Amino acid sequence: MIGSKKYMDRLREIPTPFYFYDMDLLRDTLEAVTSEAGKYGYKIHYAMKANFNDRILATMKKYRLGMDCVSGGEVRRAIECGIAPSAIVFAGVAKTDEEIRYGLEQGIFSFNCESREELEVIDSLAGAMGKTADIALRINPDVEPMTHKHISTGKADNKFGISYQEVDQVIEELTELKNLNIVGLHFHIGSQITEMKPFEYLSLRVNTIQDWFEQKGFHLKHINVGGGFGIDYTDPNAHPIPDFASYFAVFNRNLRLREGQTVHFELGRSIVGQCGELLTTVLYNKVTASGIRMALVDAGFTELMRPALYGASHRIENLSASGESLQVYTVAGPICESTDVFARDLPLPITRRGDLLRLMSAGAYGRAMSSNYNLREFPREIFSDDLN
Ligand code: LLP
After folding, report:
1. Nearest-angstrom CA–CA distance, 211 and 213
2. Ligand 1 centroid vs 91 CA: distance in angstroms?
3. Separation CA 305–CA 244 (nearest Å)
4. For a substitution probing ligand 1, which of 158, 191, 269, 359 has the most ligand atoms within 8 Å of its CB?
5. What ligand 1 atom has the least distance to the C-alpha of 267?
6. In whole angstroms, how large is the CA radius of gyration of the chain?
7. DSSP per residue over 20-78, as a string?
8. Whose CA is nearest to atom 24 of ligand 1?
9. Rounded to whole angstroms, how far apart are CA atoms 35 and 58?
10. Model pTM greater than 0.85?
């Protein structure tokens, strides 16, 4: 049994909506990911954009994960949480001068650089500070990630990375940029990728690009293949922990590494996605003139934006129902917008005012993307460790 079901008596007393985290599941997931990565000596940087709650970050630190950050704010939070700057990677397609200076002051592991102009800017800011910046070049490998187009990042028409056709030119230019130290290559092709093929294609593309660098006399210490490994949103109860063994094995089979090279990963969703869920109460039931049966709940896209933004679907269970017959519902929230719908045509046991529902697989990009639109309060976060 995963998640809130184990803690129902305690959770019923807490006002909804709120996020609930099953910390045993998080720890089991961390055991799995670190032991599978450890087999190959792979390094993991947790992509904190997925969930930057302090308790979650402290747990990542306990398992000795580094951090993948995408803003100065995230770098600062990672450092405040006690993560060593030498374990922090900083990506982001448009870093400000201030963010770059902060990263330089802290001495982070690497800036993942996304354009030729950014390389020049980091070189000049580092020069002015009398420092050398450790840089990984984020190359856009033009690989099809087989995921939702809104979360694809490694296709030629995405805004991310330096196009791989430009690599030759970049290599020429690098020799002029004296305050940069090229430590590696970085890639990230997209998110919620559940097929292994895209990771295989990525590995093969990495091999080719490495050859180009080597031919020009560049030895790269690190290869960072980003994150993106997906989770089972349809049946989280059956697959609470992603198959990390198969995921890492794809890279081990396909990447051609050089002597002493380390491989880095930036995993977010696959680590933290399944341990979190959003609990919400049914406020009203009604049937529209066209016959649609609505269950109106007290959480909306302010708490969980993924369905409205990407058409994403989260498994919904009625925790108050006990084996009643099913009816088909549209589950919608209180926000004054028609996109504020969590599910349509969903068979659920008959719902009544006051029933507690859970929206599962919401640990990643759930609370982190919430807003206070309509002047709603940010949802609370409750941890299983506090209920034991
Ligand atoms: N590295 C980079 C450079 C990234 O941009 C991302 C995610 C990750 C790592 C971590 O990816 P993950 O392992 O979590 O898939 N809000 C969207 C997902 C956006 C992902 C953004 N970048 C969603 O809710 O599906």
Report:
1. 5
2. 11
3. 27
4. 191
5. 13
6. 22
7. EE-HHHHHHHHHHHHHHHHTTT-EEEEEGGG---HHHHHHHHHTT-EEEESSHHHHHHH
8. 365
9. 19
10. yes
Amino acid letter, 7:
Y
Residue nearest to atom 20 of ligand 1 (CA): 191
User: What pLDDT digit, counting tens, does each position of 322-347 carry?
Assistant: 777 899 999 999 999 999 999 999 99
Phi-psi region of 113 (alpha: psi -120 to 50; beta: other; left: phi over 0): beta
> How many residues are present in the chain?
388
Nearest atom (ligand 1) to Cα of 153: 5
- The CA 104 to ligand 1 mean position distance, Å, reads 24
Q: Which residue's alpha carbon is at the smallest distance from atom 3 of ligand 1?
A: 188
- b/e for 30-44, b at 16 or more Cβ within 10 A? bebbbebbeeeebbb
Q: Tell me, what amino acid is at 165?
A: Q
Helices and strands in the chain, H and E counts? 11, 17
Whether residue 105 contacts residue 152, with contact meaning beta carbons closer than 8 Å, is answered with no
Output the ligand 1 site: residues, CB below 6 A. Answer: 47, 50, 68, 91, 151, 153, 188, 191-192, 226-229, 266-270, 306, 310, 364-365
Q: How far is the CA of 285 from the centre of ligand 1 (A)?
A: 35
Task: Give the DSSP letter of residue 91.
Answer: -
Cα distance between residue 104 and residue 97, in whole Å:
10
Q: What is the pLDDT of residues 211-260, one digit of tens each?
A: 989 998 888 999 999 999 999 999 999 999 999 999 999 999 999 999 99
Q: What are the pLDDT digits (tens) for 15-73?
A: 999 999 999 999 999 999 999 999 999 999 999 999 999 999 999 999 999 999 999 99
CB 57 within 8 A of CB 367: no
Distance 46 CA to ligand 1 centre (A): 11
| CA-based nearest residue to 315, from 233, 375, 207 | 233
> Is the bond into 334 cis (omega within 30 degrees of 0)?
no
